[in-house]
């Protein structure tokens, strides 16, 4: 089953989307919003599935699905906690800023609390006032979960996964060192994130969803040029069950919580950082990793962070080349300066 | 105007509360929940005020208000961002763990993103599995805001404050050093927070609300013994307008966002850390500060963090000794260990 939220008010309007992303049908009579559906999933999901079946069989005609009309599946959420499960990415990014990787990072997941009150729609521009902040994208996998009790095990956590999405966890690279030095987390260096137009149940992902990991390449393009296609099932040190259990160690988690994987990243065949796409590698899911490779090769980074007008596209395909979640497709547009001063 | 949410489902049931906290009236016909009211505040607030006036005049009888029947004013919120505006507290806590205070902390606010998907009710127990985690309370002031645009000024931010509350930002002192060392913020060391039963509009606070600060003592008791009564209007280096503008530097904030002050803390008359209540001082709003004083005086802390069964009460009174927000009144009860293992 595939679900999306058409942009409409603060919480969007829930629709069921066909497997091929061509048709959609209003789910309003069952649940007006995705959060409302998640609030009573056990009761609502079978009815949404039935509607999905009717859309698939043609009993329900629906209407043409337009990803550009979508808000984030959850336009606002009660929680967004992002892990950093591809430790290869953490190692590269830290090396790029001259920081060591503690050995514990391979056994104890990193996770930060992100802002969840106003996500960007999948085709919304990334509007930020200052290009000097170092705007980067981060291609990730994310899951939406049901209620999870305090102290839940990995097994319990895996059972609570209701939907899977793609994410662009927009990052402000030049603000990160200052924010992390203050010791309170990323705050200003993590502006609003975007998610794929469509959220998909684990069941509908078939054999690609296994062991709490999504075993398919995550494609990204910068200004239309292939940038990365690392396999999201490879080198994911911590699976989603482990990430969710980590989040639930000292508190229960409420339905509609979104848990992120962190930037998808594969090691190279030689165990090293891996090659660029145009050099035959699987590339990267953020500019920071490429800049690290450039620094290793030439002593300094060559690829700038996103410049005004630059575009990023993030998408995933099934074995037949069909888009699973629709595309995140965003342009960086500097915001107007605020009209009033402090 | 004073508002509260009676415990009922995931979002509670909105009631208008009388100034003396004795009566309440169902606000359901105007807005079923506080979040629903905040989503269209300009339209809803005058109608809630009218209901409040009818309750005050006796035109509306209402029913007896019971703080123990309350959930958090926002039982779950789309954002909880907690500042650390009383730099005196930051300096003490850092000194206690042997960390320096950078000079920039006096000019650049500290702020962390907290979990907001499942707050504790004001009289709910604090259930955590391990007393060794070092359970501490933190008495704070918090505000609920309306929509705030990206890059808002302090002046714009101040105008967006809709409601004021008290907060117990529960902290796990023995988990903090490990979490902060990982560089991603407090995550596991900040479990669910609790807020006062009643949220109050700035207008209803009268002259005590000035310059984005609440100029009244914040009282706290540990096991019924007076622990602190520092003035929340003193030594607040960053007012709420500055804190909100800080949060909005790289993203817009949505209606219903909660911004916290950090632990309320006053310097002593000599500019030092200040004396205990039983020694004639204003005391502290968390155990960590007292432990720091003890360490300075005797070389080691004497007061333990909260033990199973310990209680904390946090409350604020007007000039006539009447409770303004009702009390946060919580007991630390260890949670049962989870039934299943990983």
Automatic annotation (TrEMBL), chains A, B:
Keywords: Hydrolase. One of its GO terms (molecular function) is hydrolase activity. This is Fumarylacetoacetate (FAA) hydrolase. Residues 80-320 form the Fumarylacetoacetase-like C-terminal domain. Residues 1-76 form the Fumarylacetoacetase N-terminal domain. It comes from the Bacteria. Pfam families: FAA_hydro_N_2, FAA_hydrolase.
